[in-house]
Amino acid sequence: MACNNNAKPTTATDQSIAKDSIAPPQDFFPVPDYIGGQLKMIDSFKLPISKSVIIKNDTLLSVATDKELRELAQHFRQPDINDPAIKKFYKETSIADQSVPSVTLIFSTTDTAQTIQKINIYIKPDPDKNDKITGIYMEKAFHINDTLINQKLYWKTDKNLQVITEKQVKGKKLPLEQIKITWDY
Fold first, then answer.
1. For residue 154, which of 117, 137, 173, 177 sits 20 to 30 Å off, Cα-Cα?
2. Residue 24 lies in a domain
3. Exposure of 108 in the CB half-sphere (CA atoms within 13 A)
4. What integer pLDDT is reported at residue 5 of this predicted model?
């Protein structure tokens, strides 16, 4: 029986090679890069950009400037949860819904000191072509001086972005503000 055993004994060198070949942890979905790509697409197609602002059921419609679009897009790009200084505070989970079909990647934290509390990446899987990102949803919470700001942000791929902002100054809630910028083509 011992003669037929072709197993090679494991050496310290073999173990270190195996240990070194372990892949480093994967980065999370690159939200800043994705939003940057969407901004380049909007620029290259020279799409018309409109803006609506809703406060207390009053709606103001206007043409949006490229600067306004870029300023609001920054809310989606910063902070980047792939930054090594904060990445350790986040975990990734996923949910697949075969009835639609869709996949949702969820990045969340239990650390209330982090600005981004949650990111959902909505994906429409396509086995024949590339999977398509259909949208990005974020929840943020942060302080500026004595004001607590909670934001819910939604980026609908190739269509629009929305930022809903709730502010509390010294515990008093201010009216909710919803900004939507559309570039649909």
1. 173
2. no
3. 7
4. 43
Is 49 contained in some domain? yes
Phi/psi for 92 (5° steps) reads: -115, 135
Q: For residue 184, what pLDDT is reported?
A: 74
Determine, yes or no, domain membership for 139: yes
Residue 132 to residue 15: CA distance in whole angstroms: 40
The residue range of the domain holding 52 is 29-182
Q: What distance in Å separates the CA atoms of residue 168 and residue 87, rounded to the nearest whole number?
A: 28
Q: What is the pLDDT of residue 47?
A: 87
Q: What is the pTM of this model?
A: 0.83
Residue 75 placed within a domain: yes
Grouped pLDDT means (10 residues each) for the chain, 185 residues? 43 40 68 97 92 95 95 97 96 93 96 97 92 97 95 97 96 96 85
Is the backbone peptide bond immediately before 101 cis, with ω within 30 degrees of 0? yes
> What pairs with residue 163 in β-bridges?
153, 179
Cα distances from 157 to residues 89, 98, 133, 149, 183, in angstroms, run 27, 21, 7, 25, 10
Number of domains in the chain: 1
pLDDT of residue 48: 92
